[in-house]
Structures are given as structure tokens and as C-alpha cells.
Amino acid sequence: MKTYQPILAAAFIAIVFASCSEPKTTESSESEVAEEAMEAATAEDARPSPLMVKEGQISGKAFKVQYGSPAVKGRELWGDLVPYNVVWRTGANEASYVDLAEDMTVEGKKLAAGKYSLFTIPKETGPWTVIFNSDWDLEHGHFQYDEKNDVLRVDVNPVWEDSNEESLSMEIENPGIVIRWEKLKLPITIN
């Protein structure tokens, strides 16, 4: 019996040691997952142009807009940072997009339910061109823009206000979506 005691004691110690080390692996995995989530959240917070999502209803129909919100930061915007007569992603980073749950009209023209990237062509004078493009999931905004995927183009008159909006915003409000940045107010009629 004496020869079995050291073997049993060693086996018992090995079992206890093995069972104690498994939860540490699980805790370690949970810690790593939590740490990765914190890093992702910190990276999102560190974006120079925060990602914004607005959801609401237009004429009783669900509507969503997602965009990167750049700040003016003392820069000359119109005709400089955002050139005239060139397609602009209407935001920062990836392409801004809208998601229509049902068919709607934009400036009196039909737009079928679906997701569309949102671009504009700013003009020094006169109406701006607002573009809805079927390729909505573009990582690099206007750098990947392809005119052949345009679903709808409409003209919208910008309004220049005295007040200043530091960060670009897109609000779901009357008459549909209103884009504001610096002194620009671009009201896009949607029903």
C-alpha cells in the first residue's frame, strides 16, 4: 500500500493543478475579448471625424442616415477642402449612406426602398447636385465613387446662414434631411 500512496498523491496534485489552470485560460480569454472591445471602442472614439447614425421617420416611413462628421477646425471649406464642381462624399472617411425602408420621393423624384451612398457636387453659385448611388458600402468615399451606379440625381439650393456649425450634421427634419456644416444649410426634400 505504501508504494501506491506517492503515486496517488502525485495524481491528486496533478488533477488539482490541471483543474485550477482551466478557469485561468477562460478568464484570460474573457480578458482578451474585453481588452479587444475596449481597444475597438477607443479606436472609434479616436476617429477625427466621428461616425454618426441618425434614425427616424419621414412621412411615416423609417429612414436612416450614417456619415462621418468632420469639423471645420479653422479650415477654408468651400472651394478649397471641398472643391466646387467635384463629387464630394458629403462627410468624411467611408461614404455616407441613407437607408429607406419604403419607396420615397426626393425633390419630387421616386427613389425605391434600399440603401444608397450619398454624394453631392458643391457649386460656387446655384443649386448643388445631390446624388444617390447604389454602391452604398464604400470604404473610401468618393475615391471609389462610380457614376454608372447613380440611381438618382437632384438639384438642391443651398442656404447660407449667419450661424456656424463646427461639425457636419445630417438631421432628419422638415423637409426631409438637412445637411449643415460651417454656414451651409442644404435642405433635401423627401416624402
Describe this structure in words.
With 191 residues, the protein is of the alpha+beta class. It folds into 2 domains: 1-46; 51-189, no CATH class. The chain is built from 1 helix and 10 strands. It has one helix at 4-45; strands at residues 51-58, 61-68, 97-100, 104-106, 109-111, 114-121, 128-133, 150-156, 159-173, 176-189. The strands form 3 sheets. The protein has a 6-stranded antiparallel β-sheet with strand order 1-2-3-6-7-8, with no helix packed on it. The protein has a two-stranded antiparallel ribbon with strand order 4-5. Mean pLDDT is 84; it is low at 21-30.
Blueprint (SSEs and pairs):
Blueprint: H1 4-45, E1 51-58, E2 61-68, E3 97-100, E4 104-106, E5 109-111, E6 114-121, E7 128-133, E8 150-156, E9 159-173, E10 176-189
Antiparallel strand pairs: 1-2, 2-3, 3-6, 4-5, 6-7, 7-8, 9-10
